[in-house]
Amino acid sequence: MLRVAEIDRIERTLEEMFPDAFCELIHQNPFELVVAVALSAQATDVLVNQVTPGLFAAYPTPSDLATAPVAAIEEKIKRLGLYRNKAKNIKALAERLITLHEGEVPTDRVGLEALPGVGRKTANVVLSVAFDVPAFAVDTHVERVSKRLGICRWKDNVTQVEATLMKRFKRERWSKLHHQFIFFGRYHCKAQRPNCLECPLLDMCREGKKRTKGTTIPVD
């Protein structure tokens, strides 16, 4: 387990590298956000941001999306993987918002996770970004970074990763750190070609040490 000083170092480093990290899914309101996050499963934010403008222009409200034919929704999002299943889910999500929540996105975890296509990660993102509720959503980047740096165990599942991150970092920092972990994983500690030799946390990284073994590390 990392020492408190090491956790503090990780937090300081991420703040220095990505002080302005933010949710990169383009949205104008909680409804657009929950739909965008639901669509982002197994798809990049860049691709989601390419399809959602047309989707939201055609169906700007839950009522519009709920009454749209599934085939028409599929046509708007067909560039995304699993688009047929996602089209059914976001239509059902919109229907649930109308029938149970008067067209408004729930502001609590139970209500969010009851929506079709919305799991814990999506609920955490919506709570944090839309409603300013501290949460630590774990996506592939957050999981990869937390394990490489030794914050979590390799064998931990996403629920365990989330619990550990919430325990090791202060609650008021969860939401911003979630985005900073994502930026670090997306733009620096990438899955296939991480920037190990330029990483200020290389000495802490289990993966980085393997990748750079026998390599001369440049000194500033």
TrEMBL record:
HAMAP family tied to this protein: Nth
InterPro entries: DNA_glycosylase, Endonuclease-III-like_CS2, Endonuclease3_FeS-loop_motif, HhH-GPD_domain, HhH_base_excis_C, HhH_motif, Nth
Cofactor notes: Binds 1 [4Fe-4S] cluster.
One GO BP: base-excision repair, AP site formation
EC number(s) from the headed UniProt entry: 4.2.99.18
Catalytic activity: 2'-deoxyribonucleotide-(2'-deoxyribose 5'-phosphate)-2'-deoxyribonucleotide-DNA = a 3'-end 2'-deoxyribonucleotide-(2,3-dehydro-2,3-deoxyribose 5'-phosphate)-DNA + a 5'-end 5'-phospho-2'-deoxyribonucleoside-DNA + H(+)
Residues reported to bind [4Fe-4S] cluster: C189, C196, C199, C205
Matches recorded under SMART domains: ENDO3c, FES
Source organism per UniProt: Exiguobacterium oxidotolerans
Protein family (similarity comment): Belongs to the Nth/MutY family.
Record key words, sorted: 4Fe-4S, DNA damage, DNA repair, DNA-binding, Endonuclease, Glycosidase, Hydrolase, Iron, Iron-sulfur, Lyase, Metal-binding, Nuclease
Cofactor(s) in the UniProt record: [4Fe-4S] cluster
Gene Ontology molecular-function annotations: 4 iron, 4 sulfur cluster binding; class I DNA-(apurinic or apyrimidinic site) endonuclease activity; DNA binding; DNA N-glycosylase activity; metal ion binding
Disulfide bond as UniProt keyword: no
Gene name of the record: nth
Protein's name in the database: Endonuclease III
Function: DNA repair enzyme that has both DNA N-glycosylase activity and AP-lyase activity. The DNA N-glycosylase activity releases various damaged pyrimidines from DNA by cleaving the N-glycosidic bond, leaving an AP (apurinic/apyrimidinic) site. The AP-lyase activity cleaves the phosphodiester bond 3' to the AP site by a beta-elimination, leaving a 3'-terminal unsaturated sugar and a product with a terminal 5'-phosphate.
Upper lineage: Bacteria, Bacillati, Bacillota, Bacilli, Bacillales
CDD domains associated with the record: ENDO3c (cd00056)
Domain HhH-GPD residue range list: 39-187
Enzyme class of the recorded protein, top EC level: lyase
